[in-house]
Each structure stands twice: as structure tokens, then as C-alpha cells.
């Protein structure tokens, strides 16, 4: 479950991580929640909101009314803005990057950099020496020597404050059953570290977090233009990886074959999503949502379906409904065959979505268009 920024910061507060004062706004006519000036931030399940105009400084009431209206009525990369976070302005003396992740790695891994406030993928590509990666023992946490090395690399003088921050982020990560806790930037404000932004992903299969996830989902009903996603997802297996191509299949064998073909063609897979079992339109819709929101920078999705028990008409309805409702613009390659194939292909055709027949050719064409290989 991907959390909105405001939800992620609520979680961080629960684990003692310092965050700015903030208030959620769900309607454009809501009164200003704090004294001016403050920052207004779009609550949306994708990155790039700053470049899209989804982060604005409100100096007065006129600013607030204009920006609240404009931001709540925009879409960013095909995703609707569901709320606004009004947050106190903070001037950071230094901006760092800190995260703990299980996405695309074998063990929980801390990733940090003194070059915070930037695209961490760009930093890793252009300045790899500025990235610190450390595997974490889930039973003991980071060792003392690792923390000392981290403080040195991040050039943080107040080591106790840094160690306390890392300890709290570790606590939040493991106790919340997280797949990712990311703070970018982690700001040094008046000599103390503050989580100025938040990205929080909870493992949807973490049983001890089911009540919390239900609570978060129920609270989202107050959000602007928010619709409850389909709940039927018990058959879905979602595995995050470290590439930029999404893969959805209705069986593990088909999915693993496609994964190998993608790799052989020069593609880099961002996630592997298997529907499993007897699936429905709702499950297909949910798989699309997991794939497209689980990795915000995803460049394209390939869907491989072989209908035996599963009906291709239902699969097509789930795909086309999600694409229409979320205005998906990235390439979607679908190869479907089997039960109710003709109806499914016609549904895809009516929606203006191409379908393909030969898997090997489909994979090569997909990787060529999306990756340029």
C-alpha cells in the first residue's frame, strides 16, 4: 500500500520522527489552516509534482485561494490530485537523502546521500561516490561502526541526532511492515534533522498492518475525487524490482518466461505482478494499480494473459477501465489468448488499445519502443 505524503508523515510522527507542522486540506474552499506563509503540496500518487506546479508557497489569502483551486483540479502524470498538505515553511541549512528499502534488494538496505533534495537515481548515475548503501540486520539494526561511517559520509556534525533519526526510521520500517521508507530531503533545520518529505510503502501482505491499512483506506473517503480501489486482491503477488518496465501475468510460469525474455531483449523490469488463481475484472484493475503506482517512474507495462479458467473479456474490462479512469499515457502492450478471447480483443480494440499475438515478437517490440533497445 503506497501512502500519500500526509499519511506517511502521520506514520513518522507515530514513530517519533520529527516532521514539519502540517494540515490536510480536502476542499478548495477550506479556510487556511495556519498562519502565512506556508507551503501547499499536492497529494498525489506520483513524483514530479513540483515541476508540474503541484507545490506552491502561499504568502496570503489570494495565493491560497488560487493555488488550492488550481492544484486540486489538476492531474500529474495521469494521476488525480486527491488533497493538499499545508505545511509550515522551513529553511534547511543542509539537505540529505535517507531511505530504507526492500524494493529491488535481497535484504533491508539503508541508502543515504549528502546530496538530498535531488533525484536519487540521477545522483546514483552521475555521482555514485555520493551514495551510501548498507545492508541492515533486522534483528540488531545498523552496527556502531556503520553509523559512524554514515555520519562521516553525510558530513553530519551532530552524530547523536543522526543516530537517533536512523534508529527511528529503522523502527518505523520494521514495525510498520514497510517495503520503503524514504525521506528526501532530510533537512537540517536549526541544527536538527527533520523529515521534510515522505514516501512510505507498506507491504500489502503484512498481516499485523491490515487494521491500519483499513483505517487509512477508510479515512481516504474524505479526499477530493477519491474512489475506493477494488479490494479483491488476495490472489495477487507483487514483487518490486529495480528497473523501469512493469510486467503483469496471470500465471507464475508465463510471468517468469516473459521476465527472461524481457531481460534477454535488454529490458529492465520494475515489478513483477502475478494475478494467480481465478481472477476477475477487479483483480486485473488492482494489478494495474499496483504496477503503475508501485513505481512512479515506470515507462511502460507489458501484460501477458493465457486464459484457461480466467476470461479474457473480464481481463480486458479491468485493463481498459483502469487506463480510462487514470488517463494512462505510457505504452501498454497486451498479449491475450484463451477463454472469451474474441470478446476481450474487441473490448481492447474499442478502447483504442492494441493487442499482440506472438510473445517473443511482442516483448522485442515493447522493449524497443520503451527502452530504445
UniProtKB/TrEMBL annotation:
An annotated GO BP: tricarboxylic acid cycle
Domain spans labelled ATP-grasp: 9-227
InterPro entries named in the record: ATP-grasp (IPR011761), ATP-grasp_succ-CoA_synth-type (IPR013650), ATP_grasp_subdomain_1 (IPR013815), SUCC_ACL_C (IPR005811), Succ_CoA_ligase-like_bsu (IPR005809), Succinyl-CoA_synth-like (IPR016102)
Key words, A-Z: ATP-binding, Ligase, Magnesium, Metal-binding, Nucleotide-binding, Tricarboxylic acid cycle
GO MF annotation: an example: metal ion binding
Database matches in SUPFAM superfamilies: Glutathione synthetase ATP-binding domain-like, Succinyl-CoA synthetase domains
Assigned GO CC terms: succinate-CoA ligase complex
Pfam families: ATP-grasp_2, Ligase_CoA
Source taxon at top rank: Bacteria
PROSITE patterns: ATP_GRASP
Name of this protein: ATP-grasp domain-containing protein
Amino acid at each position: 500500500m503506497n501512502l500519500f505524503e500526509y499519511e506517511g508523515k502521520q506514520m513518522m510522527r507515530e514513530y517519533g520522527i520529527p516532521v514539519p507542522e502540517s494540515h490536510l486540506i480536502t476542499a478548495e474552499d477550506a479556510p487556511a489552516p495556519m498562519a502565512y506563509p506556508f507551503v501547499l503540496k499536492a497529494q498525489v500518487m506520483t513524483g514530479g509534482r513540483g515541476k508540474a506546479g503541484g507545490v506552491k508557497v502561499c504568502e496570503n489569502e489570494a495565493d491560497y485561494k488560487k493555488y488550492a483551486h488550481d492544484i486540486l483540479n489538476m492531474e500529474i502524470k495521469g494521476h488525480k490530485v486527491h488533497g493538499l498538505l499545508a505545511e509550515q515553511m522551513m529553511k534547511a541549512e543542509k539537505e540529505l537523502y535517507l531511505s530504507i528499502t526492500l524494493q529491488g534488494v535481497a535484504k533491508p538496505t539503508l541508502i543515504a546521500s549528502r546530496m538530498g533534495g535531488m533525484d536519487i537515481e540521477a545522483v546514483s548515475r552521475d555521482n555514485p561516490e555520493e551514495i551510501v548503501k548498507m545492508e541492515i540486520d533486522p534483528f540488531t539494526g545498523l552496527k556502531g561502526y556503520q553509523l559512524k561511517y554514515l555520519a562521516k559520509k553525510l558530513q553530519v556534525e551532530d552524530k547523536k541526532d543522526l543516530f537517533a533519526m536512523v534508529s527511528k526510521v529503522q523502527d518505523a520500517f520494521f514495525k510498520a511492515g514497510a517495503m520503503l521508507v524514504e525521506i528526501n530531503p532530510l533537512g537540517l533545520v536549526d541544527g536538527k534533522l527533520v523529515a521534510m518529505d515522505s514516501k512510505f510503502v507498506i507491504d500489502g501482505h503484512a498481516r499485523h498492518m491490515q487494521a491500519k491499512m483499513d483505517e487509512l483506506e477508510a479515512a481516504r473517503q474524505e479526499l477530493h475525487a477519491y474512489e475506493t480501489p477494488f479490494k479483491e486482491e488476495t490472489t495477487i503477488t507483487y514483487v518490486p524490482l529495480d528497473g523501469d518496465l512493469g510486467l503483469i501475468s496471470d500465471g507464475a510460469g508465463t510471468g517468469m518466461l516473459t521476465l527472461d525474455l524481457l531481460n534477454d531483449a535488454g529490458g529492465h523490469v520494475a515489478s513483477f505482478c502475478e494475478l494467480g488463481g481465478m481472477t476477475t475484472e477487479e483483480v486485473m484493475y488492482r494489478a494495474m494499480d499496483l504496477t503503475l503506482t508501485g513505481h512512479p517512474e515506470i515507462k511502460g507495462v507489458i501484460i501477458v494473459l493465457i486464459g484457461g479458467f480466467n476470461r479474457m473479456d473480464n481481463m480486458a474490462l479491468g485493463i481498459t477501465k483502469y487506463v480510462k479512469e487514470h488517463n494512462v499515457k505510457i505504452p501498454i502492450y497486451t498479449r491475450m489468448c484463451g477463454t472469451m478471447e474474441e470478446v476481450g480483443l474487441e473490448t481492447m480494440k474499442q478502447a483504442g488499445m492494441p493487442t499482440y499475438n506472438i510473445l517473443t515478437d511482442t516483448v522485442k517490440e515493447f522493449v524497443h519502443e520503451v527502452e530504445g533497445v
